[in-house]
Amino acid sequence: MQRYEVWRQLYTYADEWIQLKPWEVLWSNDFVALEINEKTYYCTIMGKLGDCIGVSIYEGEEGYADLCSIAHEYPDQAIAQYMMFEQNCLTFYMGDREEVPKGQKEIIKKLGLKYRGKGHWPYFLSFVPRFYPYEINDQQASVIVQVFKHLIPLMKAYMNHEVAVDFDNGEILFAHDHHGWKYEAIQRPEEQEKFYVVDLEDQQYLNYLKELPQTQNQYIIDLAYLSGGFIDERYDRPVSSLVLLVMDLLSQEIINIYMLKPEDDEDSICIQQLSKVIEKFGKPQEIFVRNPRVYSSLVSICDTCQIDVHITSLPMMDDVLGQMESFMQM
């Protein structure tokens, strides 16, 4: 019965959130942070434009780096999609009945709760990199309850003008227990890096690549998620399809393709696949990338091998990815 009590609390807080409507006064980039039991949770409140009503919760510095990464505007939708699937967070949404995970529909029925109409159904998802968004478990439900327990009174205080925050000048709304709960504006933390430049540690192999012949070839290298997920019995949740593609710019031919497994290290795969291409075809004159993960993985090795790296939009890759998605759905 204790399990259902956690979920009853969760839906009670969700109903209170919907009645409060804090998304009407905050934009999704107006960050809110709470320090609870020595852990910091960063929240983004969605729904200001009237769609995608919800709250995403990120834990700690790594969570803050994920939150910052999706707050940027990107020139390519593929990069935005990549960042979305690289998050580690818990999210509460309001949506249609069809969007509610099966397990949560059963809990709603068990608790005797009633929701009606389009956009009026609460549901909760867990985002984990390399996996498709999936319904939360009981422990994750407890985390959201803990956050909502303090987030709701914080938002009431803000909406009642008990605390002022200048979001436009880099402040965030912050709550912490300091001999009683205190609500205040603090300076937004410095943005955390999500991607770091990778150096190839095998100097002997790096020297080998460096001595290979230079060509006039130009390659496009992209790392992107395909739409949808698939079931793999080895994992306890659906897997997202993440693919690394290398295209010859002149011929528009895909010369290398690699589908990553959830346990693959993305940086290592980027380096590995570029190295294979260099060994097979020689060092290209230049490569074009759009994904910041690809850039941070390859910029060091390219510098050593005297390969120019350009960050740019890659609309031609969107066509290829679209064709791959269509093929996989057949």
UniProtKB/TrEMBL annotation:
Q: Which domain of life is it from?
A: Bacteria
- Domain (DUF6930) spans 206-325
Location of the DUF7309 domain: 7-173
InterPro entries attached here? DUF6930, DUF7309
| Protein source organism | Massilimicrobiota timonensis
Query: Where do transmembrane segments lie in this chain?
Result: none
State what protein this is by name: Phage tail protein
In the record, what lineage is assigned to the organism producing the protein? Bacteria, Bacillati, Bacillota, Erysipelotrichia, Erysipelotrichales
